[in-house]
Every structure is written in structure tokens, then in C-alpha cells.
Write a structure and sequence with these properties.
Elements (H helix, E strand, L loop, with lengths): L5 E6 L3 H16 L3 E2 L8 E6 L4 H17 L3 E5 L5 H7 L5 E2 L5 H11 L23 E5 L1 E2 L10 H5 L3 E2 L2 H13 L4 E5 L14 E4 L2 E4 L2 H8 L5 E4 L9 H8 L6 E3 L7 H7 L8 H11 L4 E8 L6 H14 L3 E6 L17 H24 L5 E10 L4 E6 L10 E4 L9 E9 L4 E5 L4
Parallel strand pairs: 1-2, 1-3, 3-4, 4-5, 6-9, 9-12, 13-14, 14-15, 18-20
Antiparallel strand pairs: 7-8, 10-11, 16-17, 16-19, 17-18, 19-20
Helix pairs in contact: 1-4, 11-12
Bound molecules: iron/sulfur cluster (SF4).
Iron/sulfur cluster (SF4) binds next to α5.
């Protein structure tokens, strides 16, 4: 049996740095690493540095030098990590440098030099982590929290402002998921297009090169993986245009989930929604020119306080004009603690319900029209489920996210398994689903 790799740790600085060291050790231990109390017994060494005052910096640099001469394989993290140039100039042999609280990057740097040993007979956790989704698709969370302040939402007060993960951590996770069988990655967060703003688009090291925590860069990097990449919770900011080009080139799926919530400028203002909504329709029409295959999913709230019949009609027309082919709708409900509770103009329940039904009917027409255009075409699908008794496979196209969108129902499904990617020919459609038959192999 292979021996678990041994890690040495030098922890300098204050109690906060000590807690960081403990987290790093806990993560590595859970992944099967063991530890060495001395340099000689370690396969590599992590130095958690302090950069508070000059004497602490000098002590940290000295500790790095000692670890390099005694062991040779050294990863540096902690407060002095923000001065990467100084560290690399003084000690060019360090393998990786990260700043304080960047546990993920430290652990990834260790993985790069000493991959964890996975023992399927003993490990409680598989290499891709514990998943609640089927093996063939996975959610990839790129940040926590949200810096917007929509008046109907209390997420920022529960989860705080946006905190983006370093790009390298996201990419290593994505790579691991694909390696362990995920054929589709669904990028999620509260505001995917804001990715990296909070960390000033910081770079991190992924396989020895610098990668930026920026929305476009993330899409381009993920687009190099052998998997469908689907973007959720994107806002129509100008910088999203670059991602539409990647969709047109077939690098990421031509699918955007944008929670528009409404189309009336007045309602959007009282919802305090981000982005310039007046230009949104033009933006969408331009996107469709660049990528005619684009499918847009969105959610809408009807019956928001102050919404008039005219506001609602504006929304109905907008859904048709923008061609929102995947629409979800919720009658407005107050949430304890939300600012919107203070607004006047509550809409009676029966009107909310009536508007909900009208919007869903409109959305259904848009969806049915779009799906009709796919009849006769050959499309690629990913199979989620097989119903053996009925000899049907339930699959999704590039325009369908799991759980929320429609399906592609495949007849004569013998031999088809969940997780298969297939070419199918569409022979029929209804309001939300396509019906298809497997293409004969060439
Ligand atoms: S609705 Fe979304 S964007 Fe608005 S505050 Fe809540 S989480 Fe942020």
C-alpha cells in the first residue's frame, strides 16, 4: 500500500494565523495526508508567514530560507504572501505563494506537488467530494454572499457581501469534477457576473500560471474543459458580451440564467435591481445576433408593491419581445426583514394570482414557439434518467438546466444510460419539452 504523503508546517504570527494553519491541517488530514514534526521527515513544508512589522517579515523570510535549505519543497502562505514579489525575489525556489485565509490555494498547491492518495476501501470521501447531484452533472459555486441590495431580498443580511473564491480554487475543483465523471458544470453564486469584484480580480496560480478572478476569464478557462458549462445568475452588464462570443464559438453553453424579476423601470427601481434595465432589451437582441442559439431563462415577480396594470402589461410585452423562452414566475410575498415590506401599494392576492397566470400563459407561448423551431433538427443531449418500463430516456438539451427547464424525451431507449451524451433527432415538441429519437450511429 502507498504511504500517505507527509507535510511539515511552520506557523508564525498571531492567533488568526494559527487558526488558518489549523484549518489547512484539518483539510489536509481529512484528505489522507499525515504530518512530520521535522523538515527531514516531511515530503514538503508549508510556511504560514507573518507580515505585520518589518521584524516579523524578516523572521518569515528567514523561516522560508531555512525550510528551503532543509527540505527543498516549500509552499508559502499567510500575511507576507501579499508581497509575493519580495518572497520570490528572496527565495526563487518557493513552489507557490498565497495570502492570508487562502486555504484552498494552499491545499491546491500541496495537491500539485504531492497529489492526495485516494484509497477507495478506506476513504470516506470520494476525490470529487460528497455530491447530492447525479454523477454526470455538478454545481460549481464561485462565490458567497451578494453586494447588491434588492429591496425584496435578505440574502446579503444573512450571508454578507460578495466573497469570491480565488480563480485557481474554482478551476481545480472544476477539473476534479470533470475527471470524476461530471459532463456538465453549472456555475452558481448570487451574482455570477460580479465574480472577482470584491478581490479586485486578483490573480492566483493554476497549474503554474496566473489566472484572474474575472467573469470573462472564468468562462474562457472553464470553456477549455471537456464538459458543458452552464451559467446561472448572470446580470446583463456590458462585460457579459464577451461570454456571448464564447457561446457562439461553442466553448460554453448558449444559455444564460438572468433573474430579471421585472421589466417596468418603475418597479425595477423600487426593487432596487442592479444594471441599467432600459438598455436591457437592446442588449438581449444584440446577444441574439452574436449567438442566435442563445436560450435565456429568467424569473419574474408579479404583484410587487406599487405594480400597476400598465407596469404588468409592460412586463408581458417585454417577455415576448425579448423572447424569454424559459420563464419562471412568483407572485410577490413579503419576506421578514426585507426593505420592500415598507413600500406602499400592496397588490391584492387575487390580482397577483391573475397576473401570475397571465404571465405563465405568455411564457408558455414563447417557449412553445421556440421549441417548434427545433423540430426536424439533430441536437446533442445529456441523459438524466431512463424509464425502462416505458422504454423512454429523459434527457436535456444544451438549452435546458436540470430541475428548472424542460426535457428531451427519447423513444426506444434500450441501451441508453443516465450520463450518456447522444445525438438525437427532434420529431415533435409541446409547450416545454422536445420529443426525439436516437440518431443511428454513422
Ligand atoms: S436578489 Fe439576488 S442580487 Fe438581489 S440582493 Fe438578493 S441575492 Fe443579491
Amino acid at each position: 500500500m502507498n504511504k500517505a504523503p507527509k507535510i511539515g508546517l511552520v506557523s508564525l504570527g498571531c492567533p488568526k494565523a494559527l487558526v488558518d494553519s489549523e484549518r489547512i491541517l484539518t483539510t489536509l488530514r481529512a484528505q489522507g495526508y499525515s504530518f512530520s514534526p521535522d523538515y527531514q521527515g516531511a515530503d514538503m513544508v508549508i510556511v504560514n508567514t507573518c507580515g505585520f512589522i518589518d521584524s516579523a517579515k524578516a523572521e518569515s523570510l528567514e523561516a522560508i530560507g531555512e525550510a528551503i535549505s532543509e527540505n527543498g519543497k516549500v509552499v508559502v502562505t499567510g500575511c507576507l504572501g501579499v508581497e509575493e514579489d519580495l518572497i520570490r525575489k528572496t527565495h526563487p525556489k518557493v513552489l507557490a505563494v498565497s495570502g492570508p485565509h487562502q486555504y484552498e490555494q494552499v491545499v491546491e498547491a500541496v495537491h500539485e506537488t504531492l497529489p492526495p492518495l485516494h484509497d477507495p476501501y478506506v476513504d470516506l470521501v470520494p476525490p470529487e467530494g460528497l455530491k447530492l447531484t447525479p454523477r454526470h452533472y455538478s454545481y460549481l459555486k464561485i462565490s458567497e454572499g451578494c453586494s447588491n441590495r434588492c429591496s425584496f431580498c435578505i440574502i446579503p443580511s444573512i450571508r454578507g457581501d460578495l466573497v469570491s473564491r480565488p480563480m485557481a480554487g474554482v478551476l481545480y475543483e472544476a477539473e476534479r469534477l470533470v475527471k470524476s465523471g461530471s459532463k456538465e458544470l453549472l456555475v452558481i453564486s448570487q451574482d455570477t457576473s460580479a465574480y472577482g469584484q470584491d478581490i479586485k480580480y486578483a490573480t492566483s496560480k493554476f497549474r503554474g500560471r496566473d489566472v484572474r478572478a474575472k467573469f470573462y476569464d472564468m468562462c474562457a478557462e472553464l470553456g477549455e474543459l471537456d464538459a458543458w458549462i452552464r451559467l446561472h445568475y448572470v446580470y446583463p452588464y456590458p462585460h457579459v458580451d464577451g461570454a456571448i462570443e464564447l457561446m457562439a464559438e461553442g466553448k460554453i453553453l448558449p444559455y444564460l440564467d438572468i433573474p430579471f424579476q421585472h421589466a417596468s423601470p418603475k418597479v425595477l427601481k423600487s426593487m432596487r435591481r442592479p444594471a441599467n434595465q432600459e438598455k436591457t432589451l437592446d442588449t438581449i437582441l444584440n446577444w441574439r445576433k452574436t449567438c442566435p442559439d442563445l436560450a435565456i431563462r429568467s424569473t419574474f415577480i408579479v404583484g410587487f408593491p406599487g405594480e400597476t396594470e400598465a407596469d404588468f402589461n409592460q412586463l408581458l410585452d417585454w417577455v415576448s419581445e425579448a423572447g424569454i423562452e424559459r420563464a419562471g414566475c412568483f407572485p410577490y410575498e413579503p419576506v421578514t426583514g426585507a426593505k420592500a415590506n415598507e413600500l406602499d401599494g400592496a397588490v391584492p392576492e387575487e390580482i397577483k394570482q391573475e397576473r401570475f397566470e397571465r404571465l405563465m400563459e405568455r411564457a408558455q407561448h414563447v417557449s412553445a414557439d421556440r421549441l417548434k423551431q427545433k423540430v426536424g433538427k439533430t441536437i446533442e443531449v445529456l441523459v438524466d434518467d431512463v424509464e425502462e418500463e416505458e422504454n423512454l430516456a429523459i434527457a436535456r438539451s444544451i438549452w435546458d438546466a436540470p430541475e428548472v427547464d424542460g426535457n428531451v424525451i427519447i423513444d426506444h431507449a434500450s441501451g441508453i444510460k443516465p450520463g450518456d451524451k447522444l445525438s438525437v433527432k427532434v420529431h415533435d415538441s409541446d409547450a416545454y419539452d422536445l420529443f426525439a429519437i436516437r440518431e443511428a450511429p454513422q
